[in-house]
Amino acid sequence: MRVLLIEDHQRLAQTIVDGLAAFGLGVDLFATGEDGLAATKGVAYDAIVLDLGLPDGDGLDIIPDLREATNNIPILILTARDGVDDRVAGLDRGADDYLLKPFAMKELAARLRALLRRPGGPLGLVIEVGNVCLDTTVRHLKVGGRVVAIPPRELDALELLMRRSEKVVPKRLFEDTIYGFGDEVAANTIEALVSRLRRRLQAIDAKVTIHTLRGIGYLLTE
Q: Fewer CB under 10 Å: which end of the chain, C or N?
């Protein structure tokens, strides 16, 4: 899952990036509302975490623009403003949830997962294809009923393919979903990742196949 974080406090922002990564959520960080809004035009984010005290204005003012640009993608406000009127204003502008600073990282991650599990959201609880079962809440993978461990990025790629089983997943979607702005994605990065995942699935006797559509993307079938 890919999260857009708009937060100008450098130390807190990095703490959030690292903390959410531990819960299996990739984060792209921007310090201004303008830069965060611009990022939504090129990347398909699954959720947005928005601070209200931004250097280029009040975060409340960009919520309508974020909502217009991202449609139904959930927006979680993260701020030190604890007044009821502030919370109501944020929700009325189009935000989906509100978390006060200071906060526990596990609560932020839990609130994001709850938003992503809403009807139509990208985070279903359990996905099954063939004899492969992925519990996205705790990031547990089972093959033939047996729990197996695979590297995080391979698990991210597998989840992306399983959520769209029997459908083509474009290479660009792998880049947008699995890798952040700070990651270097070489020409063969996705091919190498999928190749490793394919070999690993074969080794653990997974009853699924990853097909390569040259120049287009990948397709997972039972």
A: C
